[in-house]
Design a protein that fits this description.
alpha+beta, Jelly Rolls, Arc Repressor Mutant, subunit A, 4-stranded antiparallel sheet, disordered N terminus
């Protein structure tokens, strides 16, 4: 796992402490955490598991906006005055979510500078990720987009292990994230498996060597 310097601020420990007013909710895979149009009145933090953020158009077409994992915040729009969620959040695996009400989160951000610094860093990282995703969609072909998606889902850059498991996910979901067809995803996944970049033994595992696809021009 990502190493932390001695004495580094631990968000999970802080939000889990008895002095913080929050709710801890367990979700099973595919449970809806909140729906599009639901009241937006809490900041949520992923203690364990994973979450898919998606948006549905008026025509009923769904687009996956982001895939989040442990240590990520979401629902922070309430801090900017957003009253209803513009998208939905769904658990992609068994997950433990901490919900902190808006007013409590505002007080903590003002009084706990270490938490504030961590939260700002999260927002900046999210913004950089959105820009990178847009660039990926505009300029990269589907094979490279799929490789990048798998590496991100495996926590590339956050964990030290050369091979990392990806949360259970269908090829149809991967196709929605990448912006291609399921048949194309299936073709590339078979290719990645043949080259040793991924392994289906005991779930899907991603090898860091898959990065060669992303870096290849």
């Amino acid at each position: 796992m990502e190493s932390k310097p001695k004495g580094a601020f631990n968000v999970q420990v802080f939000l889990g402490s008895s002095g913080v007013a929050r709710r801890i909710v367990e979700f099973r895979r595919s449970d809806v955490i909140f729906g599009q149009g639901d009241a937006c009145d809490s900041v949520l933090y992923i203690h364990r598991g994973g979450v898919r953020l998606s948006v549905v158009s008026k025509g009923g077409r769904e687009a996956i906006v982001a895939m989040l994992g442990p240590g990520d915040f979401f629902g922070e729009g309430c801090l900017a005055g957003v009253s209803v969620h513009t998208g939905s959040a769904t658990a992609i695996t068994s997950s433990t979510i901490l919900l902190v009400e808006k007013d409590q989160m505002v007080r903590m951000l003002h009084s706990q500078h270490a938490l504030s610094d961590r939260f700002i860093a999260h927002l900046l990282a999210r913004n950089i990720r959105i820009e990178a995703d847009l660039t990926d969609q505009l300029f990269n072909y589907s094979e490279k987009r799929l490789a990048r998606t798998l590496l991100l889902l495996a926590g590339y850059g956050k964990v030290d292990a050369p091979v990392t498991a990806v949360p259970p996910m269908s090829q149809g979901t991967l196709a929605e994230i990448v912006g291609t067809t399921r048949s194309r995803v299936n073709f590339f996944m078979r290719k990645f498996q043949r080259l040793g970049f991924i392994d289906y033994t005991d779930g899907l595992k991603v090898n860091r060597s898959l990065l060669s696809i992303v870096l290849h021009d």
